[in-house]
Amino acid sequence: ACGGKIGENTTQQPSGSSGAAQGGNTNKDLELVVGVKNEPFYISLQCGAETAAKAAGYTLTTQAPDKFDATMQAPIVTALGAKKPAALLIAPTDDKTMAPQMKQIKDMGAKIIEVDTALQDTSVAASSISSDNTKGGELAAQTMAKLTNGKSGSVLVLDTKAGTSTTAARAKGFEDELKKSAPNLKSVGIQFTDNEPAVAAQKVTAAIASTPDLIGVFATNLNSGEGAATGLRSAGKVGQVQLVGFDASPSEVEALKSGAFQALIAQDPATIGKTGVEQAVNAIEGKSVQRNIAAPLVALTKDDMQQKAEFFYKTKC
Ligand code: T6T
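That is the input. Now the predicted structure with alpha-D-tagatopyranose docked in place:
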């Protein structure tokens, strides 16, 4: 069953189908490398992947770096060369620097499936499954427009690290759509948080000090949102500066309930993981593979969040 933490091999092979001993597609080893350890988005993704692997009769092993950092993720991928997996499912933590390690595993015969983030080089993966992150940013801008209701003011955008394909697309989608949906709002630009809540908090308090008409913050992922909420709280601006976050971790969901966030754009990580495994199995078994697949996204507010509770992320399967 799916009950493990990231890094544990929790999906067992069905008995009697081991290794290279049998005919047909004998290598049933799927390796999943997510962006960071012990993080509800990736735990939920792992849960979906484990369920799908079990259903298909494959083994799935999950690993993750301690931080969302390519220098920590790269050696994990390189070491997989010794295992020669049938497929590598991966959320690359940098859209360029993770390419050589992923190509190396591909050259050993593994199918490469991107889940969540992706490389700029689209020739490496057989399939990429993610939210439509541009659309997620647009949805955040439309939500910010509704929340500010025609008022004028400045808006801060918090991205994580340069080279993160998902959050970059969210930030760009937001800024482009804001011009259309909320012409009275003006983005003061994109600030990077290094995916550290403390940096996000500091960027928000600095923006409050330097931008008297700050009316909104868009935080492009979980850590930047949690940090932004802390920043608004310490400046006494909760509810005055509208906070639209991304993701639906347990603490973000609590913060939406308590009014620290006005909206969250939730992803469906379990579906990303499940679809990733299905595509990996298709690729291994010579069936048709879809190059790009978008998973659902939804805007949550305090008023409608309970009806959409299936989008809340898990901390264990
Ligand atoms: O927002 C998700 C994920 O989609 C993104 O690529 C990185 O950050 C998260 O894992 C949330 O922490």
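The two ends are 8 Å apart (CA to CA).
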